[in-house]
Write a structure and sequence with these properties.
410 residues; 7-stranded mixed sheet
C-alpha cells in the first residue's frame, strides 16, 4: 500500500491518495505541530476504499498562501490507529511557480485571408505540464459568424488561424503543472493567462485578397475544364508579382507605392471578373460553371479582414481595469478613439465610466473579462447615453487588470 499527499496551490487544498484501494485512517499536523485533521475513528476514515482519495483545506499564512514548513502525516488501515501506523514528514518550503509567457501576433499579408498566431513561450523549468490548452476567440460582430464560441483549441504550444478579422481577438492559455519534491510530496497548480490582441489591417488588403482569389479561380476554372492553354495565366503571374511588391512596399513603410500595386491587382481582376461570373472560363458547352469550374460559391468564403475595423465605422476604448478598497477604478488604456472616460466608484462593487453623450442606444457594445488572479465574476453594460456600468459581484478589490472593450458604432 502506498499513501501520499498532493498539495494544490491553486485550490489551497491537499489530496490524500492511496493505491491499491483501501480504507485509510489518518492524522495530519501542520508545521507548528497543530492537529489540523483527525480522521482516525471507525466510520470517519481519511480515505475509503470506494473513493481512493479525499480533499481537505490546507492551512494558510497571513498572505493567504499555503503555510510553509514540515507537515507530519500519520496513517494506518486500523481504526483508532492503535497499530500499523506509518509516519511520513513532508517538508513544504514553497516553490517557484513558472511565469506564463504568452503572445499573439498577426500577419495581415498572409495570403489569402491573413493569419493570427497565439504562442506559449513559457520556460516551465522543472515543472511537468500535465495539461495545456490554447483557445483563440474571434472578434465580436462578424458576419457570417465564426464557429461558436471559439474557432479552435490546441494542446500544442502554438495555435495558428488562417482567417484573419480586424478587431479585438481574445487568446486564453491554460496549463496544469506538477512537480515532485525529494520527499515525494507532489505539488500541483493551475495557471491561466488571457491576452486581448487588437488587429487593425490596411483596408487595401481585403480588396487585394479578393482580387487574387478571383484571378486564381478564373485560371483554375480553365484548367478544370481541360484547357491546354488556360486563360489568365499572364494575369495570374502579374498579380503574384504585384502582390510581392505590395508586401515589400508595406514592409518598408511606403504606403503610396503599396497602394499603387494594390490598384494594379484590382485592375487585373477587372479584366477577368466578367468571365468568372458567367462562363467561368470554360471553352466548351459541356462544362457547367455551377458544377465543374468552381466559380460559384467563391463569394461564400468569409472575408473577415477589416470587417469590423474602425475604418468600417466604430470608435473603441480598450483598457485594463484595476480597483482596490473604496477607490475609483484605474484604467491602463491600450486603445482609445472614443474619448476621456472618467471612472468612479458608485457603490460596493459598482463603478461608473462617464463620458457625456458617448454611449448611444443601439450602437454601443461593451464587454469585460474575468480576472485571472481572483476568478471573480465581472460584467459591464450601458446604463444610458452617458454611463457604462462595471460590476464585480457586489465586492470591491476584485478587479486586477481586467480587460474591458467598449465600441460605439457610427
Amino acid at each position: 500500500m502506498a499513501t501520499n499527499l498532493i498539495f494544490n496551490l491553486s485550490t489551497k487544498k491537499y489530496q490524500g491518495t492511496t493505491s491499491p484501494s483501501a480504507t485509510i485512517y489518518a492524522r495530519v499536523y501542520d508545521p507548528a505541530g497543530n492537529l489540523i485533521l483527525d480522521k482516525s475513528a471507525l466510520g470517519n476514515a481519511f480515505i475509503t476504499a470506494s473513493t481512493t482519495s479525499a480533499f481537505y483545506n490546507l492551512p494558510l499564512d497571513t498572505s493567504s498562501n499555503v503555510l510553509q514548513g514540515s507537515y507530519t502525516f500519520e496513517y494506518s488501515t486500523v481504526a483508532g490507529m492503535g497499530s500499523g501506523v506509518t509516519t511520513d514528514v513532508y517538508n513544504f518550503l514553497g516553490v517557484d511557480i513558472a511565469c506564463l509567457e504568452f503572445n499573439v501576433t498577426n500577419d495581415c499579408n498572409f495570403y489569402p485571408n491573413g493569419q493570427v498566431t497565439a504562442t506559449d513561450t513559457t520556460n516551465y523549468g522543472d515543472w511537468t505540464v500535465t495539461n495545456k490548452s490554447i483557445k483563440l476567440y474571434f472578434p465580436n460582430g462578424l458576419s457570417p459568424a465564426p464557429i461558436a464560441p471559439y474557432i479552435e483549441t490546441t494542446t500544442a504550444s502554438t495555435l495558428v488561424v488562417n482567417t484573419l478579422a480586424t478587431g479585438m481577438w481574445t487568446a486564453i492559455l491554460t496549463t496544469d503543472l506538477s512537480i515532485t519534491q525529494n520527499d515525494n510530496l507532489v505539488v500541483i497548480t493551475e495557471l491561466s493567462k488571457t491576452l486581448n490582441h487588437n488587429v487593425a489591417c490596411n483596408a487595401q488588403l481585403c480588396s487585394v485578397n479578393n482580387a487574387l482569389d478571383q484571378i486564381t479561380a478564373a485560371y483554375a476554372a480553365d484548367v478544370a475544364c481541360g484547357s491546354t492553354t488556360p486563360r489568365y495565366a499572364q494575369e495570374l503571374t502579374l498579380a503574384n508579382a504585384y502582390y510581392t511588391q505590395y508586401q515589400i512596399e508595406r514592409a518598408c513603410g511606403d504606403t503610396l507605392a503599396a497602394a499603387a500595386y494594390a490598384e494594379k491587382i484590382t485592375n487585373l481582376v477587372g479584366q477577368t471578373s466578367s468571365s468568372c461570373g458567367g462562363s467561368c472560363g470554360c471553352s466548351g458547352s459541356s462544362c457547367s460553371c455551377d458544377t465543374t469550374c468552381g466559380c460559384s460559391g467563391n463569394d461564400a468564403t468569409p472575408q473577415w479582414v477589416n470587417n469590423t475595423s474602425s475604418e468600417s465605422g466604430y470608435k473603441s476604448y480598450v483598457a485594463l481595469m484595476s480597483q482596490t478598497g473604496t477607490a475609483a477604478p484605474t484604467a491602463v488604456e491600450l486603445e482609445n478613439s472614443l474619448g476621456n472616460i472618467v471612472w468612479t466608484r458608485n457603490s460596493i462593487g459598482v463603478y461608473y465610466g462617464t463620458l457625456t453623450g458617448a454611449f448611444q442606444s443601439a450602437k454601443t457594445f461593451a464587454r469585460v473579462n474575468s480576472s485571472v488572479n481572483f476568478g471573480a465574476t465581472v460584467s459591464c453594460y450601458r446604463l444610458n447615453d452617458n454611463v457604462i456600468v462595471l460590476t464585480s459581484v457586489a465586492s470591491d478589490s476584485q478587479l486586477a487588470n481586467n480587460p474591458i472593450e467598449i465600441r460605439v458604432y457610427n
